[in-house]
Amino acid sequence: MPLEVDKVVCYVVHDGHLLVFTHDEIPLTRTGVQVPAGTVELGETPADAAERELVEETGRPGRVVRSLGVERYDLRPTRDEIAVRSFFVLSMEQADVSERWRAGEQSPSAGGEVVSWTCWWMPLEDSHVLAAGLGARIGAATAAARPANRR
Question: Which residue in 27, 129, 140, 150 is a FRET match for 112, CA 20 to 30 A apart?
Fold first, then answer.
């Protein structure tokens, strides 16, 4: 029986765009396009974990705007784990959707070398390309962000 692990997924939406990242040294065919996400730590609420993960993975703070619910994602065969993912919409002040910046993990949770990636803003209409079930709740996040005349 796979281990169940509480995770969070962060949808930072600004001006019709979604904050995403792609790895710099690992092929896109292995990692795909990702959003900030990670594990809920002991004693931490999922909302607090989402705000922490956003800072850890992008270097930028944000705040939870609303919860989008929970989805289960089977990580096998990569890991013998079921990710129980809480999805959140977050806001980031002074965001600039034309900006790209480098970020990464100095000590990855799985161990190994430093991992770096490039953060950037993807148009919401392209967000269907998110990797590994990270887009499971993107429809709910984008519905609220659409202008009334496009609904």
Answer: 129
